[in-house]
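HOLO CASE FILE
Compound: zinc ion
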Amino acid sequence: MNWEADAQQAADWIQQARSVVVLTGAGVSAESGVPTFRGARGLWRSVDPMSMATPDAFLSDPRGCWAWYRWRQRLVQECAPNDGHRALAELQDLIPSFLLVTQNVDGLHVAAGSRDVVELHGNLFADRCTRCDFVVDSWGETLPNIMPDDPGADPEPPSCPTCGSLLRPGVVWFGESLPEGVMERAAAAAKDADVLLVVGTSGVVYPAAGMAAIAAEGGARVVIVNPNEAAQDGIADLCVRGPSARVLPLLVP
Ligand code: OAD
Ligand code: ZN
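Model generated. Tokens follow.
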């Protein structure tokens, strides 16, 4: 375990930087108990994303799809931010220009105190109408029970209180565009950054994964924090191979 020395190098770069951009993925929440997507116990091991995380999958079985998202919402409601989330929240006030971009939909960065988080893939708790512009924040809510095998389960998927159409989870599905403007903002910040810190992502889902190359081309130092290999290791200036809840606190002065 020699990542402490690498973390020190990363800390030096970050503390000298004028502009730092952070891109996080599921790994930053792993130590909070939120499952990742692609690891040995990842969500995409037991569920095929094409049968659950696409607009067609939702339309062909809204209730089955909602049951899975309700399960994820409830799971995340039981989780709390970890020291990695908290370290990033501290950094936002210590670096002259700082932007946190996340692929995560769990809301744990905001729960840890990060402000102005760019959520590339939406938010698990921003249920929205498939027809009108109704959105509800279900973060602190007692969520209606729609698990098919639970007694007393609601047999209907949730519907819009305004227009009666189906509600859908507020996340981005495969084949959908990202929320308007988010990737443009993330890419512009990466281009101008002195350091891009890429934490807990396998780096295979685009356009998010493209931030490392954009930052490197713009002259940033690219630092990856991940206990395992990731797709962008080859263009990184430094890979800190430790768990983020232990590495990130070492980066705060
Ligand atoms: P993945 O599940 O693909 O990757 C998680 C990464 O976290 C892996 O590289 C692990 O090695 C790493 N990891 C695990 N434990 C860690 C720890 N304690 N500290 C640091 N890293 C750790 O998740 P993402 O890369 O976030 O998209 O996946 C990207 C997107 O694919 C997700 O946003 C989701 C998914 O399909 C959508 O749903 C649109
Ligand atoms: Zn509606």
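CASE NOTES: The chain has a mean pLDDT of 94. The chain has eleven helices and nine strands.
CLOSED: yes
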